[in-house]
Amino acid sequence: MADSKRPHVVILGGGFAGLSAARTLKRADVRITLVDRSNHHVFQPLLYQAATAAVSPGDITAPIRFLLRKQRNARVLMASAESIDVEGKCVRLDRGDDLHYDYLIVATGARHAYFGRDEWEEHAPGLKSIEDALEIRNRFLAAFEEAERCDDEAERRAWLTFVIVGAGPTGVELAGVMPVIARKALAGDYRAIDAAGTRVILVEGLDRVLTAYPESLSARAKRDLEELGVQVRTGARVTAIEEDCVHIGDERIPCRNVFWAAGNQASSLGKKLGVETDRAGRVPVEPDLSVPGHSEVFAVGDLAAVKWGDKLVPGVAPAANQQGKHAARGILADLAGRARKPFRYLDKGNLATIGRNRAIADFGWLRVRGRLAWFLWLFVHILYLVGFRNRLSVLLQWAYAYFTFQRGVRLITQVEKREG
Q: At a CB cut-off of 8 Å and minimum separation 6, what does 105 contact?
């Protein structure tokens, strides 16, 4: 009974923000319940590596229970939050059970958005989860198998055409690695097709790729992509996606493989917090990251619209970590009788890899490109991976791929037959 008198902190989501919040409360005299629909934390910046068979999905994930195993005040539930009653301070879970809270941190992230064309998702999967990565890996590798079986040359070309929609970091990273895999890792494996003839098209509605970066770095990224063999189409919009083709403007491109990297939509739980959300479903928050009108509820990570000067804090892992910590510190301040402090985002810079020995880095005061930026990208991602085993395994797989040009996880699983 004594335990039940301690403040109950419910955290929804085991991503960067949710885990960061739980760990910040490690020594606090509170009860923590962390709820996630999966049993694992995903290192999302490397999802595209799992999607392109560079690393094993297990090497960029870690069980949430394992990560919090030594934190005696934390409990983990594998469940989905169905609704939130902010007046009654209660979260209803998928089996109808209720979690009553004193403090709530909502860190349920975002999914890809199709701008009102949700029917496109069937033909153009996005990349936000391990399941998404496996789906893309299956489709990418299976495309070469289907092309090998084709007798019709036009159909074969359609299988070997890959269209990526959206030229943010995910789209650029996917587009940059695919031609290298086709020319190097798959060269010589097939008899009826020339994998080196694979066509990769990157489509972006705005006037340049990687718009979050300075124009000089954006231009360098576009040049690198084109040198790798990627057809970059900026100022172009996808108008239709069908099973066997993509329409870019009025042009119809026969294509059996489309991957979506354009736009995000915040978790639907944001709309259940009793406040107006923005067009992307994000929750506008107070300076301390609490929800307007409910100081005991925090929205963090991709779910939150956090002001940063005349724009919003970007939806990147370092920002999510900082927001999770800050929300937890707000709770600690309440418990200690101190005033909460406003959130201050510390911009640690942006890194994006374009392909082998090609990357860009923007630290504001310093801009780096080429091989140095690429090695910096490798170092940072190894450093922030969760767990020594994962770091060692990914490092070994990257070294193997670098020196041999081979991909270590070329496994196709659970592929549904797509009619030709």
A: 9, 10, 11, 12, 17, 18, 21, 297, 298, 300, 324, 327, 328
Write the pLDDT tens digit of every residue in 325-370: 999 999 999 999 999 999 999 998 899 999 889 999 998 889 999 9
How is the chain split into domains, by residue range? 3-37+79-112+264-336, 118-262
Half-sphere exposure of 276 (CA within 13 A, CB side): 2
On the 0-12 / 13-18 / 19+ scale of CB atoms within 10 A, 71 is middle
**Helix 169-180 and helix 215-227: axis angle, to 10°?**
20
Q: What is the pLDDT of residues 102-127, one digit of tens each?
A: 999 999 999 988 988 999 999 999 99
Same CATH topology for 3-37+79-112+264-336 and 118-262: the answer is: yes
Q: What is the pLDDT of residues 6-21, one digit of tens each?
A: 999 999 999 999 999 9
User: 173 catalytic, yes or no?
Assistant: yes
Residue 89 is classified by DSSP as: T
Global pTM reads 0.92
What's the sign of the alpha-carbon dihedral 234, 255, 129, 289?
Answer: positive
- Distance between start and end Cα atoms, the chain: 64
Give the helix, strand, coil percentages of the chain, each rounded to 5: 35, 25, 40
List 87, 121, 148, 173, catalytic entry? 173
If pLDDT is split at 50, 70 and 90, which confidence band does 387 have?
A: confident
CATH number of 118-262: 3.50.50.100
Burial call 212-241: b when 16+ CB within 10 Å, e when fewer:
ebeeebbebbbebbeebbbebbbebebeeb
Tokens of 395: 């490092």
Q: Which amino acid is at 409?
A: V
- Residue 36, strand partner residues: 78
CATH number of 3-37+79-112+264-336: 3.50.50.60, 3.40.50.1100, 3.10.180.10, 3.30.70.3280? 3.50.50.60
Pairing status of strand 245-248 against strand 238-242:
antiparallel
